[in-house]
Amino acid sequence: MSRDTTARLHIDWTRCDGHGSCAELLPGLLGVDDFGYPVARSGERDPAVPRRDRDAAQHAVRNCPVMALRLYRVDHSGTRR
Amino acid sequence: MTSARRLLQDQDRHGPLPALRLDALLDAVSESGLTGRGGGGFPTATKVRAVASRPRKPVVVGNGLEGEPLSSKDAVLLGHNPHLVLDGLDVVARALRARRAVLAVGADLDPGPVVEAARGRRIEVVTVEGGFVAGQESALVNQLDGRPPVPSDPFTRVTESGIAGRPTLVLNVETLAHLALVVRHGAEWFRQVGTRDEPGTSLFTISGAVRRPGVVEVPRGTSIREVLAPAEPDPSSAVLVGGYHGAWVTDLDVPLTARGLKPFRAAVGAGVLHVLGAGVCPLVFAAEVVDYLAGESAAQCGPCLNGLPHLAGLLHRLASGDRDPALPAETSRMARLVTGRGACAHPDGSARFVASTLAVFAEHVGAHLQGWCPSETRSAAS
Amino acid sequence: MTPHVTGPLTSALWDLGRGTGVVALAMFTLSLVLGIVARSGRRVPGLGRFGISDLHRTAALTGTGLIVLHVATLLLDPFAQLRLVDLLVPFLATYRPLWLGLGTLAVDLLVVVTAASLLRHRIGPKLFRAVHWATYALWPMALLHALRAGTNSGDLWFRGLAVVCVASVVTAAAWRLAPSFAERGWSRRTRRTA
User: Fold this and answer.
1) Which pLDDT tens digit goes with each residue over B307-356?
2) CB-based contact (8 Å) between B299 and chain C?
3) Which residues contact B346 (CB under 8 A, 6 or more apart)?
4) Which residues does chain B have within 8 Å of residue C189's beta carbon, measured at their own beta carbons?
5) Is B15 domain-assigned?
6) Residue A68 CB: number of other CB atoms within 10 A?
């Protein structure tokens, strides 16, 4: 597996309720679909978070009322926060 | 040439398999090139290694749920040769020093032969609730662990933490049967049939417009036409490869390998081959399939819970003669929308089936939009 | 009951003790109402949904901080006759034990709710939500404590504040229970069992 050190935003779909704060805080990264759920604009499953959006992403993680978000980085052995 | 009847051959019990140490088992399985037969096609050695690398003693689970309605290979295997499956489960559990070894079977299966064969072994045979999604790896683990039979967020893999928080190895029963044979006869023997990239044999369930539906065992890499031959298929334009999450293939001479199926965006999956009858409208068939898939959603994830019924609705409109020219594009859009946005591959697989239907039967779709159907009947005969 | 002032510092402590309590009540009222707005998924122009959640949290934490001060000053204030045990075990105080005891209970609940909130990413959404329901018990306790153990209940400004607090919570709670609330997600999910 290649080493990929970009920070990524993971959505726990079993928790996501379509509340929408994340899309408000990260409008460049996330849109909203027909049913109110977040869509990664890049089409990735866990969209990469550019450095300039790092703070907003952390805000989104804290703000999600059902704790459906997490930020992580992949290192050479596995996943890590 | 070695016979292809390996799993379905009548076998006397040869006595217990040699207890292999983990490294010996990993070597044998790795060299054999065995991949998962439950649909994922993942290299088995990699999965075993992932669980072995964790500090806690693992739990090993044989997955015999077979939630796909078109598939019956696991049921046939368990009825015919349960000892082989249990041998495989046994040898893996011992090599991993597993805390528990469980064989999970669906409620439809008669557990008698399996329970009988499990006597005296350190294996629990558990009957679990069925359903399309219940056989998914994390859903099965959840059910065995006393939770609802729905998938978990894949961020934490079951190989890291599964039943009782232990690393859990879930292998399809056919995979376990092949594994038992690899341990008994060696990796080289396993590779005597099949292709270099996809060695060994596979079980296929044949259904649809065929005179003799059922389960066959063939070397991997066999063409669709050759696999279907004993089932006596009607002449057909397309075969659904991979079940309700699969894709249509129109060239029957294509070998059943990843490379051969790639142009059709299909995969061998769990070995389901469904022949489309000449009089069956593929759009009506597809609409009914997606109805079923929508109903089988675990109803946890918004895009799947909302998107699949939407997809079913769109297909029904297409099938029933709605001539809105925007329908195909809207259906494609909805299929793309649900892909990759759920805790499991249910929406992805459903979207793949829909996209394949629209692509392979594009002319048929065109005809419907003009108000007529090329097929003779309008109901999906099963 | 008029306070018996013995020195300027004591008077200051007493003022601070009461002041922090009153403002904390206002904060918790605000937080509760905002919590209901957040749950509704409605967007408020200018704030967005994330802004509502942020405010809800800020108000709650501010209230909590004020309660820490409230308790600390009252512990230090000889006039209040508050002992450490009164922080944990309710109804043991000499002065209006029932109403002060409600304050004690509220503080105990507040500790649990705050801990669960700060650790919510560790304990998971189900446990967090279960504990968070306690806020619906916490607010009435705080209100009754303020009305009956507090010494400003006779003052007009306090009565006005109390009326505003009660009115907002009653309105918000009624809205929460109304069918038109249409909360996102939870009520619409049917969890299947195969």
Assistant:
1) 999 999 999 999 998 999 999 999 999 999 999 999 999 999 999 999 99
2) yes
3) B132, B133, B136, B245, B293, B296, B297, B298, B304
4) 299-300, 305
5) no
6) 21
Which one of B49, B51, B138, B153 makes the best mutation probe of the A interface by having the most chain A beta carbons within 10 Å? B153
Write the pLDDT tens digit of every residue in B62-107.
999 999 999 999 999 999 999 999 999 999 999 999 999 999 999 9
Quick one: pLDDT at residue C185? 44
Give the residue-averaged pLDDT of A53-77.
Answer: 92
Q: What is the CATH number of the domain that holds B76?
A: 3.40.50.11540
User: Would an 8 Å CB–CB cutoff place B347 in contact with chain A?
Assistant: no
C38 in reach of chain A (CB within 8 A):
yes
Kind plus residue range of the DSSP H or E element containing A28? none
Portion 21-40 of A in contact with B at CB < 8 A: 33-37, 39
How is chain A split into domains, by residue range? 7-80
In a domain, B377, yes or no: no
Q: Clarify whether residues B271 and B297 are in a common domain.
A: no
User: Is C184 within 8 Å of A15 when comparing Cβ atoms?
Assistant: no
Is B127 within 8 Å of chain C by CB? Answer: no
The number of distinct structural domains making up chain B is 3
Q: Is the pLDDT of residue C53 over 80?
A: yes
Residue C187, pLDDT score = 34
Q: Identify the architecture of domain A7-80 in CATH.
A: 2-Layer Sandwich (3.30)
Question: Which residues in chain C have Cβ-Cβ distances shorter than 8 Å to A58?
Answer: none
Tell me the whole-structure pTM to 2 decimals: 0.90
- C49/A contact by beta carbon, under 8 A: yes
* Residue B255, domain CATH: 3.10.20.600
From residue C169, give the alpha-carbon distance in Å to each of B42, B347, C27, C29, C162. 56, 42, 12, 7, 11
Q: Where are the domains of chain C?
A: 9-177
**Same domain, yes or no: B302 and B286:** yes
ipTM value? 0.92
**A59 contact C CB<8A:** yes
CA separation for the pair B260, B197 (Å, rounded): 12
Spatial CA neighbour of B9 closest among B177, B173, B176: B177
Residues of C in contact with A65 (CB under 8 A): 38-39, 53
The residue among B253, B275, B297 that closes a domain is B275
- State the residue range of the domain holding B288: 282-369
Q: Are residues B55 and B169 in the same domain?
A: yes
Residues of chain B with confidence (pLDDT) below 70? 1-3, 10-16, 376-382
Coil vs helix vs strand at C77: coil
Q: How far is A52 from chain B (nearest CA, A)?
A: 25
Report d(CA B132, CA B345) in Å as an integer.
Answer: 11
SS3 label, residue B353 = helix
